[in-house]
Task: inverse folding
């Protein structure tokens, strides 16, 4: 529900400019609201309003968090280049409050249609992860190309979770065609955030693939009814650090240019 506080509204029309679904119309005597049923609750109107005049879904605009200064390009570039997949973790468990703080921040990652439909499944403890890895390996036994992986698991190594003390999975119903994208964006944001909190991660691609194919794996993971773990990350305290940025393939880009900007 959208409500404009007329005592505050300065009729600048910014709400109408930022609303992706054109719910606001600028009239000669003020702003009117149209097709409120299309509102996707993205909050852009309330976030942009210079006079904090917009109540969205009963949220008092004065309670919205003010913006903090952004990291500069150098800092963010350094983070993107320094983030590495971690496959060697300390035995210590991940502090729950730190993990929850990271997941809480990731709520602000974008979702298609602002569905905000990503929820998290956190698997903790080596015994839990081993049980899930056993199930993943059972599925992989059917694929001869994965024989080396199966052998490594049977020898007691952990090629699936890489010895991590914890793994987190972004889950959605899978009914929306962009659910996998939503979950991957959330995990990607988490992956970037972790090194700033003394943690490290590595995408759990084998588990993602196995969970997509096999209900037994989803069950072993404790996936909630109606949800699918669509993207995941092993998480822990890194036992290794890196000194340099590894080389990457050169930038490939095609620019299709028009005559006007
Ligand atoms: C979708 C995806 C799935 C991945 N799955 C695994 C995995 O199951 N096990 C693993 O050790 N690494 C996995 N990785 C990590 C990649 O191997 C790694 O990102 C790549 O080698 C580049 O290294 P960097 O992340 O340090 O830049 C995965 C990465 C992505 C993006």
Result:
């Amino acid at each position: 529900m959208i409500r404009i506080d007329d005592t505050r509204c300065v009729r600048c029309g910014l709400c109408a400019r930022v609303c992706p679904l054109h719910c606001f119309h600028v009239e000669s005597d003020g702003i009117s609201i149209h097709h409120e049923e299309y509102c996707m609750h993205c909050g852009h109107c309330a976030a942009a309003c210079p006079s904090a005049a917009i109540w969205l879904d009963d949220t008092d605009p004065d309670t919205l968090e003010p913006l903090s200064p952004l990291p500069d390009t150098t800092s963010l570039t350094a983070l993107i280049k320094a983030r590495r997949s971690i496959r060697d973790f300390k035995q210590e468990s991940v502090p729950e409050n730190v993990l929850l703080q990271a997941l809480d921040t990731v709520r602000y990652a974008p979702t298609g249609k602002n569905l905000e439909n990503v929820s998290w499944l956190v698997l903790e403890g080596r015994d839990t992860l081993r049980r899930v890895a056993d199930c993943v390996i059972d599925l992989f036994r059917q694929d001869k190309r994965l024989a080396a992986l199966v052998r490594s698991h049977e020898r007691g190594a952990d090629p699936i979770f890489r010895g991590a003390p914890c793994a987190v999975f972004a889950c959605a119903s899978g009914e929306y065609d962009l659910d996998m994208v939503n979950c991957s964006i959330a995990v990607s944001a988490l992956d970037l955030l972790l090194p700033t909190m003394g943690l490290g991660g590595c995408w759990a691609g084998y588990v993602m693939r196995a969970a997509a194919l096999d209900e037994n794996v989803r069950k072993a993971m404790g996936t909630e009814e109606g949800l699918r773990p669509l993207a995941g990350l092993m998480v822990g305290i890194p036992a290794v650090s890196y000194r340099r940025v590894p080389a990457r393939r050169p930038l490939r880009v095609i620019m299709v240019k028009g005559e006007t900007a």
